[in-house]
Amino acid sequence: MVVEQRIGRIDRLGQKSEKILIYNIVSKGTIEEIILERLYKRIDIFTSSIGDLEPILGKVIRDMTDSLFDPNLSREEKAEQIARSARALIKERQYLHNLEENSTQLIAHDEVIRQKIKKIQKFGRYLTGKELEIFVGQFFSRQFPSSELYGEGGRKMIPGERGPRYFDVSPELRQFVATRIHRTDKEGQRLIQLIRHDRVKLVFDSDSAMAFLDAEMIYSHHPLVKLISGFYREESESIHSVNLIAVSSNTLDEGVYFYGWASIDERGTFTARHLRMMLLNLSGRTAVVDAEKCEQFLHEMVVNGSSWQGQHPRLSSNDSEAMYNWLDESVSEYASTYRQKRNMEADAVIQRQLQSLEASYRVKLQRREKAVETARAAHRSDRVIQLQGSQISKLNADFDVKRAELLGRKGVDVSYRIEGVGFVKVKAKTGIA
After folding, report:
1. Are 136 and 149 in contact (CB under 8 A)?
2. Which of 17, 144, 162, 270 has a Cα at 20 to 30 A from 39?
3. CA angle 234–239–243, rounded 5-degree value
4. Contact 295/123 with Cβ under 8 angstroms?
5. For residue 95, what are the CA distances in angstroms to 18, 44, 45, 102?
6. What's the N-to-C CA distance of the chain in angstroms?
7. Out of 209-223, 307-321, 348-362, least confident range
8. Is residue 56 within 8 Å of residue 89, measured between CB atoms?
């Protein structure tokens, strides 16, 4: 059973002959003859290259050989098994052919995905271990100071620094967790078990998790992160809406900026949320119009920002009101433009979905109508014909419902909410080659 291997080894890149003749000799009445007659000829293996089918074909033949030796199978059952295998191989060959035909299109999609991944990495559109550590650490230091994170030997750790973190479980923290987790919450119960220890060892990145197997890995959906997020949703006053931050960055020019960030929510065809950052340089009151710069700087503020120590900007109430009005108008204008863009995209998406729904409906309807005609031509009973007619009625009703659902989702409503404002002092980042 090595003919498929011989063909694959000869008919490949580097073969200089334009024509290849392959002779395969088998003994009459053997399993090989059955496979030769029923399988190889069916999939036309002798007039075309099998290419990527080689490993698949080899496995099919090995499995088939075992079955053909089964004494409990009749000759007809063995023939049917070979036919099924042939059909499967023909389908696989067609799939590979289509894949090759569309390879250039797939490569184009691959490049789009690669560019999107680069943007995700560049603008920090994901939660890093460092950000999770900042999130958890600030919660502990503000709400449960006796449970602040620390490193080996009790030393203070810089967020993102390699190594485990520890926190001491105070009675207040244990009580807080117990009152907020329901007994049916399995993940939450795991957190309750974790804090039964007086001291808990944590890591926030996969490298540290591999190095310290006895530590609890904190990830974006960890019950501790969910617990803290739930607390901030209920106790929004615990989040400082106005902040004074200092950060070293080369994304913006040095200076003092007024900043504001808003959450942008969309409902309808699309359901999503993203953040929008606005920046105003106090020197000349000029806005940073580059949206990508704003997004990148927001990420830098979160990861590298620190409390602004020293003299802060002093503004009159009129200046403060004017800046907030500028922020509100800027976000409102952005939301309006974004709404128009998303509605155009939504119309295209709904149109494609409607076309797909209608095409599927027409195929099913033709099949049902043909079944009714066949039943009538065969003089089937009225009950059978009525039953098939009722299937058409149900198909029509289902189509109307699904179409109405799609049309009901057409359009996108965009709203925004200003989540926080403040001032940030930007200093040039040194040590960059």
Report:
1. yes
2. 17
3. 165
4. yes
5. 26, 16, 16, 11
6. 62
7. 307-321
8. yes
The dihedral sign for the CA sequence 176, 181, 183, 187 = negative
CA dihedral sign, ordered 53, 57, 60, 62? negative
Spatial distance between the Cα atoms of 346 and 270, rounded to a whole number of angstroms? 7
Find where tokens 């334009």 sit. 18
Amino acid at 272: A
Note the helical H segments in 199-245: 206-211, 223-234
Whether the model clears a pTM of 0.90, i.e. scores above it, the answer is no
Residue 288 · residue 280 · CB < 8 Å: yes
The residue with tokens 């939301």 is: 335
Residue listed under structure tokens 């244990």: 174
Evaluate whether 220 touches 384 at the Cβ level (below 8 Å).
Answer: no
Taking the CA atoms of residue 411, residue 417, residue 419 and residue 425 in that order, the dihedral angle to the nearest 10 degrees is 90
**239 with 232: CB under 8 angstroms?**
yes
Structure tokens at 262: 């808003």
Instruction: Report yes or no: 277 and 298 within 8 Å, Cβ to Cβ.
Output: yes
Q: Is 236 left (phi over 0), alpha (psi -120 to 50) or beta?
A: alpha
Q: Who wins on pLDDT, 381 or 199?
A: 199
Structure tokens at 157: 């750790």
C-beta separation of 299 from 122 below 8 A: no
CB 349 within 8 A of CB 269: yes
278 beta partners: 260
How far apart are alpha carbons 41 and 27 in whole angstroms?
A: 17
Residue among 214, 194, 209, 222 at smallest CA distance from 163:
209
Cα 337 to Cα 219: distance, rounded to the nearest angstrom: 35
Calpha distance 133→296 (Å, rounded): 20
353 three-state secondary structure: helix
* Residues with Cβ within 8 Å of residue 289, at least 6 apart in sequence: none
Q: How confident is the model at residue 50 (pLDDT cuts 50, 70, 90)?
A: very low
